[in-house]
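User: What would this chain look like folded?
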Amino acid sequence: MNHPNSFPKSEHLCGDKRIGQLFTQGDAFIAYPLRVVYLIAPKKDVEFASVMVSVPKKRFKRAVKRNRLKRLMREAYRLNKQPLVALLKENDLQLHIAFNYVSDDELDFVAVDKKMKVALQRLIDKIITVAPVSMPPTDSLASGTDL
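Assistant: Here's the prediction, encoded as structure tokens.
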């Protein structure tokens, strides 16, 4: 069994058919500087979430900068994916995600991590609307207020 914070090869989204299906049938939103394309489906594969990251060569000519930004995005996802994966397991759903970096500026890890948390929370909200669950939203737990 993998550590909950790991990001094994089996969680990487690969294959022309899957990626093509994601971009043709999937929905998208922007949590600047990330554009998130996602496709929610019934569980078929071993992993609950398959992820790909990309940084355009048009905006960052040097491969060193592109690779660094991809590394930052993968690390931010790896550290913050547990609530998303738990929700997918609970609803027996599968999620394909593409994180595209759309900014012209190279941001540091703190900024990328903050925006990755925003993007993952929006994905959780979208999954809850698709498959309602009995658990309360994470925002009400964080505020500590009782009704």
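Residues 10-133 form a domain with the Ribosomal Protein S5; domain 2 fold (CATH 3.30.230.10). If you want, I can go into more detail on any region.
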